[in-house]
Design brief:
About 65% of the residues lie in helices and about 10% in strands. The protein is mostly helical and about 220 residues long. A 3-stranded antiparallel β-sheet has the order 1-3-2, with helices on both faces.
């Protein structure tokens, strides 16, 4: 397991250094494929063995800011990687298989950074830097587009029945594990915002980079 984690971290580092290039896209794709390969390996084990080889974990996630749209991105990322994201005040935590948490953390950084860059550029070009509501509406519209993209990708996924069964089993086991840790989850409160077309289009420019395009 240690060798697998080292390989994953090296691939993620390569993707970070070369983001937006063919090499960066390839590195991110390989990181996701490596994680999926690990899941397929675990599919043949019983739950006790899976828990020993790739245990559940809770890990703090640095959101990079207080804006509520960042919580939405974290939740979307976690769900897409078969994890859960919980919040306590300004603190966020990812919960799931260790392999999935590592990928979810990486994808959150990529997605949130891209939206923040798009937001800053749009506010500046429209002379709205002093308008917090405009920035909020733009960011939430971008997250809405991102959510639509991820839902579409999951619907298009042709994951094997065995893999789907493993995901369902792990979700149930994860909730049981969290209960054993004394963690109680409840839905986040909805956040009102006004839709903007520019923000929505920006959400379609978030670089899912193959890592997400291939995921289940």
């Amino acid at each position: 397991m240690r060798d697998w984690r080292v390989r994953l971290e090296r691939l993620k580092a390569l993707a970070e250094d070369q983001a937006g290039t063919p090499e960066g896209d390839l590195a991110t794709r390989l990181a996701r494929e490596l994680t999926m390969d690990r899941h397929r390996q675990l599919a043949g084990f019983d739950l006790e063995t899976r828990n020993r080889v790739d245990p559940f974990m809770r890990q703090a996630l640095e959101l990079g800011g207080k804006a509520f749209w960042r919580r939405r991105v974290a939740s979307l990322t976690a769900h897409h990687c078969d994890c859960l994201c919980s919040f306590s005040g300004q603190q966020a935590r990812l919960s799931g298989r260790r392999s999935s948490v590592l990928v979810a953390e990486h994808l959150y950084r990529v997605m949130s950074r891209s939206i923040a860059v798009e937001r800053a550029a749009w506010l500046g070009s429209n002379h709205l830097l002093e308008d917090p509501r405009a920035g909020r509406d733009f960011s939430h519209s971008a997250v809405l587009a991102l959510e639509h993209r991820l839902v579409t990708l999951r619907r298009q996924d042709q994951e094997a029945a065995e893999s789907r069964a493993l995901v369902r089993s792990d979700r149930k086991a994860l909730r049981g594990w969290l209960e054993g840790q004394g963690v109680t989850l409840k839905p986040d409160v909805p956040f009102a915002y006004a839709y903007t077309q520019d923000g929505y289009e920006a959400g379609y420019r978030v670089p899912l980079q193959g890592a997400v395009e291939d995921s289940g």
